[in-house]
Amino acid sequence: MDLKLLDVEPSEAERVVVDLFTGMGRDQLLPALHAVNDRVGWISQGALNHICRVLHVPPAEAYGVASFYSLFSLSERPAKVVHVCVDLACQVNGAKSLCDRLTSELGPAGARSGWLRSPCLGVCEKAPAALAFQAGEVAKEQLLAPTTAGEVIAVAAAGPSHVDGGRAEVPQAGAAGLRLLKRVGVVDPESLDDYRAAGGYAALRTALHLGPSGVIREVTDAKLVGRGGAAFPTGRKWDATARQPVRPHYLVCNADESEPGTFKDRVLMEGDPFAVIESMTIAAFAAGCSRGYLYLRGEYPRALHLLRNAIARARERNFLGDNIMGHEGFSFDIEIRRGAGAYICGEETAIFNSIEGFRGEPRSKPPFPVESGLFGKPTVVNNVETLVNVPVILTEGCEAYTRVGTSGSTGPKLFCLSGNVSRPGVYEVPFGTTLGELLDLAGGVPPGRELRAVLLGGAAGGFVRPDELDLPLTLEDARAAGTTLGSGVVLVLDDTADLGAFLLRIAAFFRDESCGQCVPCRIGTVRQEEAMARLVGRRPLTTSAEDLQLLKEVGQVMRDSSICGLGQTAWNAIESALYRLGYAEEAAS
């Protein structure tokens, strides 16, 4: 390829880290960008130019990728920076006052002041949250959750001291009857021996005995469906991939849970990382995959550390690699790919583009991933929660599994409780538990307050009123009620929450996260935010009736004609607030 490179050279530090990728292909573009960002804190023209030279990527395309992700900077900034979350759960737990104090003491958010406003960091149970980063020969990251302005100011000056903000909040830890969370908070997540002593790798042994078709049959009979929001039958997806004659087959674990209010996959990866690795290995065996990619959101430093350890220990003990567990001919290994702050990369085909070294934009379907996915080969994509259900099915049996939950929604389900709730965290309950029962588990709203609304499914979900708490939490009941369970978000708002500001943040989130590929979403999310800003009284330029009509029309166009789920669902929560909660009348009055 005859590349037209820029006439600028990298620094010595940049050259050293980029040269490590010599001889590799374009699919290493994202890791190379991470390497430079980790070393110097930002990506200069010289560094980008050298990456293009080493990986043979046109400069314009490399720039398009580097500028796509919020965790990267293409303009110079300090080695130390703190990303402060301003998204939904943090917003209702004091993020605005925290940011106001930071602005007062450090200056407006930006590179010069050492702090940046950030979308959701995935630690919603510990809101408000921040992520401190310091570049260097060994980059450091520290989650501050929950945090205060004083702590952020101190860390912005001194830099991060360790990798995480403590263990995840699992209020049910150690309780009897748990399946998905049974080891979280109980077993050492860094010990393979502890994992095996608690039943680990028994499911893989069962899978090898059953054979690929037997595993697929068990998963299909268990009626396991995807837990990321789409609810597609898992067994059908695996079977369709396994039947493809084209080789190789790939497995992608979608661990880029960027939906505001979602943190269940993080809890599983931090609390039970070997279960994630075992589950991926079983899925690979069933679908005939020789290689797996775990696409991990870039804001999860503790999960990254624990998963790297789990993969290394599994390789040492022949649970990954060639002839796994002595099973001749079954070879499989896993590579972690770090995301870099892009909500759209949670869409299954956008993940493919990101891994391959392109902008994380969704692809048109068909062809579907089971036919032509990663690198144009048949690919299975499942999220973390979906996968960790598989060992439960294989150890308990599909019949026992289907006795949990309902006939239409089988098995256990993880829900992420955050916002104005007494005991936030991840909760495991059987499908069919009512919303009221789930809120009772979490202690309800804080004493002296009243429930105003519950957001189900995150920014792409819908609101439920206080008089609807008898809603059974199943896929079919949520659908019948005109809402969705989505990825398991249950974000509670009490009577102190500013609903208008909350809705405006949802609109701003979709505007920021739209990849811009299709016109309905690229333009529609901007118009939606502008109309919401006027409705909540920030920029009164039109009448409420005109803005409500505009929101309806724009929302319907996005829903009908956007390429992917981001644009198709960008209007959902706002629509439900306007008409289910009655905010339209409130805004008009």
TrEMBL record:
InterPro entries listed in its UniProt record: NADH-UbQ_OxRdtase_51kDa_CS (IPR001949), Nuo51_FMN-bd (IPR011538), Nuo51_FMN-bd_sf (IPR037225), NuoE_N (IPR041921), Nuop51_4Fe4S-bd (IPR019575), Nuop51_4Fe4S-bd_sf (IPR037207), Soluble_ligand-bd (IPR019554), Thioredoxin-like_sf (IPR036249)
Keywords of the record: 4Fe-4S, Iron, Iron-sulfur, Metal-binding
Q: Does the keyword ATP-binding apply?
A: no
The family database entries (SMART domains) matched by this protein are listed as:
NADH_4Fe-4S
Instruction: Tell me if Nucleotide-binding is a UniProt keyword of this record.
Output: no
Q: Mind telling me which PROSITE patterns this protein's record contains?
A: COMPLEX1_51K_2
- Pfam families per record: 2Fe-2S_thioredx, Complex1_51K, NADH_4Fe-4S, SLBB
Example GO molecular function term? Answer: FMN binding
Q: Which residues form the NADH-ubiquinone oxidoreductase 51kDa subunit iron-sulphur binding domain?
A: 500-548
Which family would the database say this protein is a member of? Belongs to the complex I 51 kDa subunit family.
Task: Identify the PANTHER family for this entry.
Answer: NADH-QUINONE OXIDOREDUCTASE SUBUNIT F (PTHR43578:SF3)
Q: What is this protein called?
A: NADH-quinone oxidoreductase subunit F
Species in which this protein is naturally found? Lentzea albida
